[in-house]
UniProtKB/TrEMBL annotation:
PANTHER family: HEME A SYNTHASE. Coiled coil: none annotated. It is found in: Membrane. Keywords: Cell membrane, Disulfide bond, Heme biosynthesis, Iron, Membrane, Metal-binding, Oxidoreductase, Transmembrane, Transmembrane helix. This is Heme A synthase. It comes from Paenibacillus kyungheensis. InterPro entries: COX15/CtaA_fam, COX15/CtaA_HemeA_synthase. It comes from the Bacteria.
Length: 321
């Protein structure tokens, strides 16, 4: 007699991992579309590409259509994860992550369709990237949470973690929200074609405070926001490491955050240096986006952990339902 198949925590863990990877590929694929100038590779049509399901074999149409296909796959994996965690999992926290992942995948898909129909509007394109990044961060938290859930299988003990202060919680939340705002300014630089507004790695067009107009203003304010974010993350990392000697999880997250923001700043400088070398600039801008995605995911997960520990859950995955 055949054994009845049952959805286990291990199945959900691997499903969440697949969802996270596909979500990452969809987000990076959107960047390839932007950097290669393939945003209108399928014309102003969605979901068809020049009136066809299978487009003509031009480079721009293939890039745009491939991005749409991966985004559709991301939607399917997000849907499967949502169903799996809603119906076959008892942890409320993971239900929330799965719901957020599906929600923001759908939102960013709508924004992508609007960007095509309305000829690549800069605000819509920036929002499209921002929502895609939230979807990736949600899927990352779902994958990390599912991993913790699988560790608890069979009542395996997970070490308790000391509580954190509300001040640490609020600082982490502020850093996470501010990071998202800085990302949006960077996306706006890209989609308004203002990346050349500030020449020079340290100074902007040879001045500490340049004439603020047009692309110069957009690029300068993004640069100021990025450097101020470095200060915010440095303060967060200091308090995470120095004030939590008995909480290795929070300390590791703080160190990871400061490492990635430093790498992010350096990659931004590399963007400026390689701006006139298209081949190198393509890869440096991809690296720039990759690093900020990881940083935002780390901060989102850290935000959840400090919230849990400030409420005295002491390392538990979350309340059951």
């Amino acid at each position: 007699m055949a054994r009845k198949f049952r959805i286990t925590t291990t199945h959900l863990k691997w499903l969440s991992f697949v969802t996270c990877v596909v979500m990452f590929l969809a987000t990076m694929g959107g960047l390839v579309v932007t950097k290669s100038g393939s945003g209108l590779g399928c014309g102003n049509e969605w979901p068809l590409c020049h009136g066809q399901f299978v487009p003509a074999y031009t480079i721009s149409s293939l890039i745009e259509y491939s991005h749409r296909a991966i985004s559709a796959l991301a939607g399917l994996t997000a849907l499967f994860s949502f169903i799996g965690f809603i119906f076959f999992n008892k942890h409320r926290e993971l239900k929330v992550y799965a719901s957020l992942t599906l929600l923001f995948v759908l939102v960013q898909a709508v924004m992508g369709a609007l960007a095509v129909v309305f000829s690549q509007s800069a605000p819509i394109m920036a929002l499209h990237f921002g929502f895609a990044m939230i979807a990736f961060a949600s899927s990352s938290m779902m994958a990390l949470g599912a991993r913790r859930m699988d560790q608890q299988k069979g009542d395996l003990p997970i070490p308790d973690e000391p509580p954190v202060s509300k001040g640490m919680r609020n600082l982490t939340w502020f850093a996470t929200i501010y990071t998202y705002m800085v990302v949006y300014t960077g996306a706006f630089v890209t989609h308004t074609d203002s990346r050349g507004g500030c020449s020079g790695v340290l100074l902007c067009n040879g001045s500490i405070l340049p004439e603020l107009s047009g692309g110069v203003a957009v690029a300068f304010f993004h640069r100021v926001a990025a450097y101020s974010l470095l200060i915010v993350i440095a303060v967060l990392a200091h308090y995470a490491y120095r004030r939590h000697p008995y909480n290795p999880g929070i300390r590791k997250l703080g160190v990871t955050a400061i490492v990635f923001i430093i790498m992010q700043i350096l990659s931004g400088m590399l963007n400026i240096v390689t701006m006139k070398i298209p081949e190198w600039y393509f890869f440096s801008s991809m690296l720039h986006t990759l690093l900020i995605q990881i940083l935002f995911g780390v901060l989102c997960y850290m935000s959840v952990r400090v919230w849990q520990l400030s409420r005295g859950t002491r390392g538990k995955l979350g309340q059951n339902v």
